[in-house]
């Protein structure tokens, strides 16, 4: 099933209305779809490198809008969708504690999930469920998604096809390592 979705999503990059398809995929990925928009973003930019930053901008705007939809799912449909999922995972008793922790560090969670391979939809839904303030949510989602998609666009614009394999295999890990190093730096400054 996932492989078919992946193949279908990748095929949309060649469609005449690929920019619209990218917007739709970026939107739904931020709220419920399992395939990230990078699958379309990379071949689209390689096919039209002069349009790299326009393509990245479409992905950012649509992803943040989809994040707002995920936020709404968490805020307004948590009882019917989110809570049964958490209960099936045995997390029902720890939801209140999670709520307090998430609200204390929610902006960081959105930033980290927005640039790393962690599923962004999980954080968007949890942001709505925990009642994270909307403005910090939107701003952190905007910064995170812009960093992620414009980094891909910048690399592809300047280095073209040779950098594709690096992006597909290692960029998520590079972002994750960056976040870990940044977190370690904050920890060292605060506690050491």
Automatic annotation (TrEMBL):
<feature type="transmembrane region" description="Helical">
    <location>
        <begin position="55"/>
        <end position="81"/>
    </location>
</feature>
<protein>
    <submittedName>
        <fullName>DedA family protein</fullName>
    </submittedName>
</protein>
<feature type="transmembrane region" description="Helical">
    <location>
        <begin position="18"/>
        <end position="35"/>
    </location>
</feature>
<keyword id="KW-0472">Membrane</keyword>
<feature type="transmembrane region" description="Helical">
    <location>
        <begin position="171"/>
        <end position="189"/>
    </location>
</feature>
<feature type="domain" description="VTT">
    <location>
        <begin position="36"/>
        <end position="157"/>
    </location>
</feature>
<keyword id="KW-1133">Transmembrane helix</keyword>
<keyword id="KW-0812">Transmembrane</keyword>
<dbReference type="InterPro" id="IPR051311">
    <property type="entry name" value="DedA_domain"/>
</dbReference>
<dbReference type="Pfam" id="PF09335">
    <property type="entry name" value="VTT_dom"/>
</dbReference>
<dbReference type="InterPro" id="IPR032816">
    <property type="entry name" value="VTT_dom"/>
</dbReference>
<feature type="transmembrane region" description="Helical">
    <location>
        <begin position="132"/>
        <end position="159"/>
    </location>
</feature>
<feature type="transmembrane region" description="Helical">
    <location>
        <begin position="102"/>
        <end position="120"/>
    </location>
</feature>
<dbReference type="GO" id="GO:0005886">
    <property type="term" value="C:plasma membrane"/>
</dbReference>
């Amino acid at each position: 099933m996932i492989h078919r979705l992946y193949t279908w999503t990748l095929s949309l990059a060649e469609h005449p209305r690929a920019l619209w398809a990218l917007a739709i995929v970026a939107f739904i990925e931020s709220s419920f779809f399992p395939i990230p928009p990078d699958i379309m973003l990379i071949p689209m930019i390689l096919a039209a490198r002069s349009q790299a930053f326009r393509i990245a901008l479409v992905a950012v705007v649509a992803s943040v809008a989809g994040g707002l939809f995920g936020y709404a799912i968490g805020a307004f449909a948590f009882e019917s969708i989110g809570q049964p999922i958490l209960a099936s995972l045995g997390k029902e008793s720890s939801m209140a504690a999670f709520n307090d922790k998430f609200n204390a560090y929610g902006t960081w969670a959105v930033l980290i999930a927005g640039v790393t391979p962690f599923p962004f939809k999980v954080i968007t839904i949890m942001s709505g469920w925990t009642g994270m303030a909307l403005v910090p949510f939107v701003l952190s989602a905007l910064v995170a998604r812009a960093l992620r998609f414009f980094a891909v666009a910048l690399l592809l614009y300047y280095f073209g096809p040779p950098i594709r394999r690096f992006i597909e295999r290692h960029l998520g890990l590079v972002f994750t390592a960056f976040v870990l190093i940044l977190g370690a730096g904050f920890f060292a400054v605060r506690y050491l």
